[in-house]
User: Fold this.
Amino acid sequence: MSTSKQRRDAAHRKLERQLQRREELAAQRRKQTILMSVIGAVVVVALGVWIVVANTKDDSNAAAAGKCHYVASATSQGGPGAPKDTTPATSGKIKLKVTTSQGDMQFTLDRALAPCAVNSWDHLVTTNFYDNSPCHRLTTSQLKVLQCGDPTGTGTGGPGYSYDEEPPTKSDPYPKGSIAMANSGSKGTTGSQFFICYESCSGALGTDYSLVGEVTSGLDVVQKVADAGSDNSNGDGDGKPKLPITITSIAKE
Assistant:
């Protein structure tokens, strides 16, 4: 038969076991709380990253989805302002009769290649922006292009707006006869200036320039200008064409 002291000792040990168990349970709850907090933080961060990536993807695919963002700029030479149509067609071709001081050409633009750039061309041609504008640059070394589209003839002019590039996806992005849009080397600086590759430009360029179409007749006009050479005012094989050429008019056929 237990004594009073034995009963008190047993009760004390039981209390200690209960307190220890409570502490263990409390510790487990603290660990669970910390774990859930960490998981929650990871989920929040992951969700934030997903949103950023999704938005970036949406922006990068804006042109492909037919959404064009024309942004006003300071490089305006009496331009007509940005196109009002910001959701242009993404298929179909435009044939243009190009009259120059050195002979006639035909351009065929393909909306599927760069919908926003071709939409801008359509707008600028309709408003006669390109009429009476000189081709201000000729390169004759590794890169062989004639650059036009700046009514000032300085290489710094534009239509008063700019927009994002629509890089070509073909393995041979700029074959001979290609027409592509020039830019300043920074994203979103495409305007009215364009260049014609009188030889393939694929090996000399990256894919940062919107391909809009090709010269379907009259490429010999560009070759004639190229054969006369450049004045090397920008360096060896790069400058104004020695044989001046001016776009008199561009009209839809």
